[in-house]
Design brief:
alpha+beta, Metal Binding Protein, Guanine Nucleotide Exchange Factor, Chain A, about 25% strand, 3-stranded antiparallel β-sheet, about 20% helix
Length: about 170
């Protein structure tokens, strides 16, 4: 058998590798379900949430899931009205701020009121994103991006399963 010579690893390379190995799980855990770590006005047990929500709604609202694009009927909703949290009924977005972003999810350029939604930083895919959740129950709604229309320049990209629509 032929013996192969491997390059020696220096102390700096070893320490850098060790630091990377330790830091990846720490960074990956940052932002995992941050909304659920806080106290909200509407607070139910896990069993109560499971009873109240469909399996798909539970996956989105309580486990921070994402529905496939172009699957929500609310993406095409054009009537005047209010989009409310499917978990607790909190008014979140007005149809007046809804627009077609072309992404396949209902999109809004602003919430209905300043305190309707809350945000946190989400690192689940390796870089920071702004997660948006219901200010009343902490349910995961989606994410906010900086590529929306005027006047805010924001795109609240929201899972349709996280919303119910109430016509005006």
């Amino acid at each position: 058998m032929e013996q192969k010579n491997f390059p020696a690893i220096g102390r700096r390379q070893m320490l850098a590798g060790l630091g990377l190995t330790v830091s990846i799980p720490v960074l990956a855990s940052c932002g995992v379900a941050p909304a659920q770590a806080k106290t909200f006005p509407v607070s139910l047990s896990d069993a109560e949430w499971r009873k109240r929500l469909t399996k798909a709604e539970y996956r989105i609202l309580r486990e921070a899931g994402t529905e496939p694009p172009f699957t929500s009927p609310l993406n095409d909703e054009k009537r005047a009205g209010t989009f409310v949290c499917a978990g607790c009924g909190n008014a979140l977005y007005s149809s007046k701020t809804k627009y077609d972003s072309g992404t396949g999810w209902p999109s809004f350029w602003a919430p209905i009121a300043k305190g309707a939604v809350a945000t946190s930083t989400d690192y689940k895919i390796g870089y920071p994103r702004t997660e948006v959740h219901c200010a009343d129950c902490g349910g995961h709604l989606g994410h906010i991006f900086g590529d929306g229309p005027k006047p805010t320049g924001k795109r609240h990209c929201i899972n349709g399963l996280a919303l119910d629509f109430r016509s005006a």
